[in-house]
Specification:
The protein has helices at residues 24-38, 89-100, 102-105, 136-150, 154-166, 174-183, 185-196, 204-215, 221-232, 247-260, 266-272, 309-322, 336-340; strands at residues 62-67, 72-76, 82-83, 218-219, 277-279, 284-289, 293-298. With 341 residues, it is α+β, with helices and mostly antiparallel strands. Helix 6 (174-183) packs across helix 8. The longest helix has 15 residues, at 24-38. It starts with 23 loop residues before the first helix and ends with a helix. Bound molecules: 6-diazenyl-5-OXO-L-norleucine. 6-diazenyl-5-OXO-L-norleucine is lined by residues 85-86, 118-119, 136, 180, 187, 215, 279-281, 306.
């Protein structure tokens, strides 16, 4: 059994069950080999629309896996910090769902994939809600809900919660924040459109400022793997044991990540990789293998959707080599039928 979660390694002819036991070092060998395979990949470009992001070293590359019992397997630049950007979106959504309940949150934001780029200026016909919380319009709406409730304390509240999810104290990169605040005209337009339709409260500028700060939280790729492992571990941090989210809330977050987390690549991602995930324009990818492990990758060169090129390749190959896809024939699911037979 791999990770003790009801998932087995692929069998080949002549193999016996004894051959399928995977000692820890084999996972490390796989991570090392994926790192070596994709390190030469130089497809894609570093994001420049937030000027400070254009300073990122395009060659930096890190891969980290954290199991729900806290074992870590990693390769490359796993200590290099970068801003979390859109990878923050599932976590603020989770905070809002937990604090206000999903019926209340869904009055302001939908859960439908948009099929449009992350920064599109578009709302749902009829309701005027953003399509989902993983695109900018939806994330700004969620942050505005938190701000409406917590006012000036929201940033501290957010940092505290993100730190619990990551298991270490996180802070903001003031230069990236300032750079986005100065140049975020498109997000400002989105915030004012939301204000026009009464989706965000009157202090839309303060909520937008908070959104810029939330995107500027510094993490490394090990943090992303830990945060993913917290979700995989039903909301409890694998090492500290602290509860960051309730199990109901984790279900809501993972559902939206699964359908909308990789922007207008979400359908292909669900088909090829098949686990809930979220990417960000600084080059981070966070993926959750339910009840088993968290994956974090960092590489700043992005494809045309805004997803990290190396991150996509590493996750795709990991999923195929380990049978991680939720609908993989080797994934036996929760086994609830066994409990009622
Ligand atoms: O709102 C923005 O444009 C950025 N702060 C975050 C965007 C982002 O990461 C989308 N990612 N693919």
């Amino acid at each position: 059994m791999l990770f003790g979660g009801g998932r087995v390694m692929r069998m080949t002819p002549g193999m016996t069950m004894a051959d399928t036991a995977v000692p820890q070092h084999e996972i490390q060998a796989l991570v090392d080999s994926l790192y070596a395979t994709y390190r030469p990949l130089s497809d894609g470009d570093v994001a420049t629309y937030i000027p400070e992001l254009s300073k990122a070293d395009p060659d930096v590359f890190g891969v980290s896996l954290v199991t729900t019992d806290g074992r870590t397997f990693e390769a490359g630049d796993c200590d290099r910090e970068f801003t979390i950007q859109s990878v923050s979106k599932p976590f603020t959504f989770g905070m809002a769902v937990e604090e206000f309940g999903h019926d209340e949150v869904l009055k302001y934001v939908g859960v439908e994939p948009s099929g449009d780029p992350f920064n599109s200026i578009e709302l749902q016909n009829g309701t005027n809600r953003p399509h989902n919380p993983m695109i900018n319009a939806g994330a700004i709406t969620v942050t505005a809900l938190l701000h409406k409730h917590h006012g000036d304390r929201t940033l501290a509240h957010l940092l505290e919660r993100f730190s619990t999810i990551a298991g270490r104290e996180l802070r903001i990169d003031p230069d990236v924040y300032e750079s986005e605040r100065r140049t975020g005209h498109r997000n400002r337009a989105i915030a004012h459109l939301l204000l026009n339709f009464g989706i965000v409260h009157a202090d839309a500028e303060a909520a937008l400022d908070l959104y810029f700060k939330q995107c500027s939280i510094l993490v490394n790729c090990r943090d992303l793997a830990m945060m993913a492992a917290t979700l995989a571990n039903m909301g409890a941090h694998p090492l500290t044991g602290k509860t960051a989210f309730s199990v109901q809330c984790v279900k809501d977050v993972l559902s939206v990540m699964f359908t909308c987390g990789m922007y207008d690549y979400s359908g292909q991602w669900a088909y090829r990789v098949g686990v809930p995930a979220k990417s960000g324009v600084s080059g981070g990818v966070l993926a959750v293998v339910n009840r088993q492990l968290g994956i974090g990758t960092y590489s700043p060169r992005l494809d045309r959707y805004g997803n990290s090129c190396r991150g996509i390749e590493v996750c795709t190959e990991l999923a195929s080599r380990l049978g991680l896809h939720v609908f993989d024939c080797l994934n036996i699911g929760s086994g609830f039928l066994d409990t009622i037979l």
